[in-house]
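Sanity check

After download, print the first record. It should look like this:
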Amino acid sequence: MPIATPTPAERFADILWYLAQAVVTRTAFGLSQPLINLIITRIRDAKQAFARLAARIDAGTYAPRRRASTPPRPPAVQKPRPPPNPLARKFGWLLPLVPGAVVFGGQLDSLLRDPEMAALLAAAPVSLRRPIRSLCWMLRVEPPDILPRPPAKPRPPREKKPRPRREKLPPPYPPTPPEAPAWMQNWPRSGTRWTPTRIRGSPRSA
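Expected structure tokens:
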């Protein structure tokens, strides 16, 4: 009896299941239980999100979300944003914590190159962007080009502060009064910069 070939969704679920087991075994190597729970939650969320979308695509019931024509209203009370996760800042952040995860990164990279998986991603690239990119970032795998990058958040405009006007500096030397002696009339005018050559005078030729 021939063995049925697993679907891309089944292969994806198997990779994440064994990846979670590899994370759990790191308890004996000093990985704290709260940190393990955080990693397992990320893996489980990506697995469940992908399974739901893959089932809807396979059943033909998937429909991409339509963007609202009117901008959303701002909430009455601004909720404080949660602090950023310090783990997810580095590309491949899971590998130093779980060195054995590099094997599952290679398997994920091979699965993403599979034609059936590529067709599945092409059916819902925007919806599958988050779970796939999250795992690729975790395992140091380059995500496929078909998955768009998340839109950049607009930066608030900076307030342009008026530059203070520079005050005009007084001349370095006051002008020579007309009643001054004749020898002072040849004194350099205001604004002349004094240099050692001007003070000593031009050198005489031998």
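If your output differs, re-run the checksum step. Summary of this record's structure: Residues 33-59 form the longest helix (27 residues).
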